[in-house]
Amino acid sequence: MPELPEVETIKRDLEKNLTGQVITQFIVEDPRIFTGFSPSGGPRRKINISHLIRGLINKKISQFFRRGKYLAMEFVDGSALILHLRMTGQLLFKNGEGKARAAFYFGSGKKLFFKDRRRFGEIQFSTDWKKEKSIASLGIEPLNGNLTAQFLKESFKERSASVHSLLLNQTIVCGIGNIYAAEALFRAGIRPTRKGKSIRIEELNQLVPAIQQVLNASIQNRGYSMSTYVDTLGKKGKTQLFTQVYGKEDQPCVHCKNLLKKIKISGRGVVYCTQCQK
């Protein structure tokens, strides 16, 4: 958390408000937010924070990208900052209560604050961000037309891991987390504990549009606000008002009225319907 819809919501906000902006000041309150960088995907090494901060001054933002759950703030010279919010990270135009781990100030007077209660979020500088190992190792994007039933069939074959776990595998399909895996599998009528290799092509023909539907719907609703996620204006998303299984254990299934069951898969709580999902 946040997953693809939440990160895409933030990316669109940043794109609308900060494209073309020039950084005039960059304040880092918590240097641990930088985990090092590797210009060409090689081993990470320690960085000189002061040198990095000086290097960012007067850089002009050309565009923003989302890759899986990562954000890239790309500059006109091709370099970029890669940001990952992890569990509790927030990117806000207003600071609000508590200290930000890092803050960007722009020539127009606009500001952007990286807040993070649990301090798991990361910022990484790169001169060629698409070649960074964290980015290059990601699987396909689920919403760009490359996700097909045949692709999943090939990716899942001979895999004994649960289909729910495979959907969370960022090297296969990136951006999907626990929320949207549970919702998509419910829509497709597939039990989350099923082994990946057991899923038939006709079932995958149902799963692919289910994945795309739940992701697109959540983007329209500006994400799922469970505890800490908010958009750049500090506002909560609305997806939690429309989920069918996630967070609804012991409630009646919307289809068969059977009580939904919660189990653990790879340490994550997963809710499903024992009647509708086979």
Explain this structure to me?
The strands form three sheets. The chain has a four-stranded antiparallel beta sheet with strand order 1-6-7-5. It has helices at residues 4-18, 49-56, 133-136, 149-156, 163-167, 178-188, 201-220; strands spanning 23-28, 61-67, 70-75, 80-84, 89-92, 102-106, 111-116, 122-126, 261-265, 268-272. The protein is α+β, with helices and mostly antiparallel strands and 278 residues long. α1 crosses α7 (201-220), α4 (149-156) packs across α7 and α6 packs across α7 (201-220). The protein has two domains: 4-136, Alpha-Beta Barrel (N-terminal domain of MutM-like DNA repair proteins); 149-272, Helicase, Ruva Protein, domain 3.
